[in-house]
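stage 2 :: seqdesign
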């Protein structure tokens, strides 16, 4: 397996050179895999992506171009998609950049897959230009935090049960005009310092409140204004794919009528979708559960 991984690494270098790629994106799950970076960096810019917080903390002290991927369990293509999106939010890649991606099965497995793609175009085929817009948002860490919560809930649920949710981020003054409370707002009465989505305690509260109906309305700077909000915006001119439920209709309608971004998590399929201007601009699919 290690020999095969080395063959792919050598191939990635050759492909990057011959295609004049912007970077090589390397997904690693173990410390020993970092040894290959030195060889890659001799000839090409390398972006490292990992889900391992220890690798991230240890490695960020000695190098740049390092990404912590929030997804806990996904497919090879899902890992690449997530890493590309995160790299664009951090300004490491721009839409249209050619990237050679190296990854493998999640867990303690060597690299076994190589993919050449154009950042922001190959996977986000619905509206790639909108993807480029949101990756240039003023507060990318807020979008990352919201995605982090959605991915954790997709994989873990809450109290053993699957949950769905919708985040509406940005243009909050206008968004609130299209919403009303289904329940008493649990975030009412707290100071802004106590309501940041970047606060670990607030993240846990959001995961708990995700079990109730309604949307989370969040300011562009990450302050959570409400939970359990009903979205009532016009769907005029909005085209929705068949088979999507009320949560996705709300996300499409509110982003069509405001300058907001919406993130949804499907309770049934565990698929995460990002909406902008009434359109789905990215999907992150959860892999099927393993049967024992």
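stage 2 :: out
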């Amino acid at each position: 397996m290690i020999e095969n991984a080395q063959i792919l690494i050598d191939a990635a270098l050759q492909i990057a050179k011959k295609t004049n790629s912007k970077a090589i994106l390397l997904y690693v799950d173990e410390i020993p895999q970092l040894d290959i970076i030195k060889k890659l960096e001799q000839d090409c810019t390398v972006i490292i992506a990992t889900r391992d917080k220890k690798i991230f903390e240890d490695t960020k002290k000695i190098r740049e171009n390092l990404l912590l991927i929030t997804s806990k369990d996904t497919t090879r293509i899902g890992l690449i998609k997530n890493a590309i999106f995160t790299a664009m939010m951090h300004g490491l890649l721009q839409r249209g950049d050619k990237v050679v991606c190296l990854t493998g099965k999640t867990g303690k497995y060597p690299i076994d897959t190589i993919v050449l793609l154009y950042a922001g175009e190959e996977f986000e085929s619905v509206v790639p230009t909108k993807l480029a817009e949101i990756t240039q948002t003023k507060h990318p860490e807020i979008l990352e935090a919201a995605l982090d919560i959605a991915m954790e809930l997709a994989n873990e649920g809450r109290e053993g049960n699957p949950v769905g949710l919708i985040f509406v981020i940005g243009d909050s003054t206008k968004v609130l005009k299209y919403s009303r409370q289904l329940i008493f707002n649990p975030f009412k009465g707290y100071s802004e310092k106590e309501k940041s989505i970047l606060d670990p305690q607030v993240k846990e509260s959001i995961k708990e409140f995700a079990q109730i109906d309604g949307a989370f309305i969040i300011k562009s700077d990450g302050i959570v204004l409400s939970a359990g909000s009903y979205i009532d915006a016009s769907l005029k001119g909005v085209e929705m794919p068949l088979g999507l439920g009320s949560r996705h209709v709300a996300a499409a309608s509110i982003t069509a009528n405001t300058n907001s971004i919406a993130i949804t998590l499907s309770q049934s399929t565990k698929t995460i979708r990002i909406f902008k201007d009434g359109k789905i601009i990215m999907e992150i699919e959860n892999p099927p559960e393993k049967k024992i």
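stage 3 :: structure notes
- The chain has nine helices and twelve strands.
- The first strand starts at residue 23 and ends at 27.
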